[in-house]
Specification:
This protein is α+β, with helices and mostly antiparallel strands. The chain has 4 helices and 6 strands. Strands 1, 2, 3, 4, 5 and 6 form a 6-stranded antiparallel beta sheet that branches. The radius of gyration is 17 Å and the shape is elongated. The mean pLDDT is about 95.
Length: about 150
């Protein structure tokens, strides 16, 4: 989809992905966060949880990654411009199946006329249809000529 075809208010929904033990291990390794709430099943269950939970920042990683193709931009993606107002609504656990919903908030062409910024809400939603995390993300695209 080209920038000029994108309509503010449009909603895009991605496919699901079930989060695994391997995902949690990778999140712990990359972040260095081995708190027992993430790495010790017994510890988590003794605190009333159904099991170990993911670090909140892992939700941001998954949501932004899954949203990369929502919609599939025909213009070249330059990169992310930032995330704001991100909120953790409910924990994410091993075995949860999540998908992303993206709604276009606004779009604008940059001052040089060669690039554009698209802002959209990203909602990470679990198998119970609960929003587990959400916020606003910006993406810059290089506009196709012609």
């Amino acid at each position: 989809m080209l920038f000029n075809e994108l309509v503010v208010g449009s909603e895009f929904v991605g496919t699901g992905r079930t989060l695994t033990e391997a995902d949690l291990s990778i999140a712990c390794m990359v972040s260095g966060d081995w708190h027992p709430i993430h790495s010790d099943e017994d510890y988590a269950k003794k605190r009333g949880l159904p099991g170990r939970l993911f670090q909140g920042s892992f939700g941001i990683l998954i949501a932004t990654g899954m949203a990369t193709s929502l919609p599939h931009f025909s213009d070249d993606i330059v990169g992310a411009t930032g995330i704001r107002e991100w909120a953790y609504r409910t924990p994410i656990f091993v075995g949860d199946t999540v998908h992303v919903r993206s709604v276009i908030l606004n779009k604008r062409v940059t001052s040089d006329g060669k690039r554009a910024v698209i802002e959209r809400t990203l909602s990470l939603i679990n198998q119970k249809d609960a929003v587990v995390q959400e916020g606003i993300a910006g993406t810059m695209v290089r506009l196709k000529s012609g």
